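re: that chain from earlier
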Amino acid sequence: MNGQTGKLVGDLPMDKGAYNKYFAGTLAIGAAAVFALHYLFWLL
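^ sequence. v structure.
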Protein backbone atom coordinates (compact mmCIF):
# COMPACT_ATOMS: atom_id res chain seq x y z
CA MET A 1 0.00 0.00 0.00
CA ASN A 2 1.28 3.41 -0.90
CA GLY A 3 1.51 5.54 2.24
CA GLN A 4 0.69 8.82 0.52
CA THR A 5 -2.09 7.86 -1.89
CA GLY A 6 -3.45 4.76 -0.17
CA LYS A 7 -3.43 2.80 -3.46
CA LEU A 8 -2.68 -0.91 -3.45
CA VAL A 9 0.05 -2.04 -5.82
CA GLY A 10 0.98 -5.63 -6.63
CA ASP A 11 -0.52 -8.98 -5.73
CA LEU A 12 -1.05 -10.37 -2.28
CA PRO A 13 0.86 -13.57 -1.52
CA MET A 14 -1.37 -16.64 -1.57
CA ASP A 15 -0.73 -20.06 -0.04
CA LYS A 16 -1.80 -22.55 -2.71
CA GLY A 17 -2.02 -25.39 -0.21
CA ALA A 18 -4.44 -23.46 2.00
CA TYR A 19 -6.43 -22.42 -1.08
CA ASN A 20 -6.73 -26.05 -2.22
CA LYS A 21 -7.86 -27.18 1.25
CA TYR A 22 -10.49 -24.44 1.38
CA PHE A 23 -11.73 -25.29 -2.13
CA ALA A 24 -11.86 -29.03 -1.40
CA GLY A 25 -13.69 -28.42 1.89
CA THR A 26 -16.23 -26.15 0.26
CA LEU A 27 -16.75 -28.65 -2.55
CA ALA A 28 -17.20 -31.53 -0.08
CA ILE A 29 -19.74 -29.61 2.02
CA GLY A 30 -21.66 -28.57 -1.09
CA ALA A 31 -21.71 -32.13 -2.43
CA ALA A 32 -22.90 -33.48 0.92
CA ALA A 33 -25.69 -30.89 1.04
CA VAL A 34 -26.83 -31.74 -2.48
CA PHE A 35 -26.74 -35.46 -1.68
CA ALA A 36 -28.75 -34.91 1.53
CA LEU A 37 -31.40 -32.87 -0.29
CA HIS A 38 -31.61 -35.45 -3.06
CA TYR A 39 -32.05 -38.21 -0.49
CA LEU A 40 -34.78 -36.28 1.36
CA PHE A 41 -36.69 -35.71 -1.88
CA TRP A 42 -36.31 -39.41 -2.72
CA LEU A 43 -37.91 -40.32 0.61
CA LEU A 44 -40.98 -38.26 -0.27
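The helical segments are 16-43.
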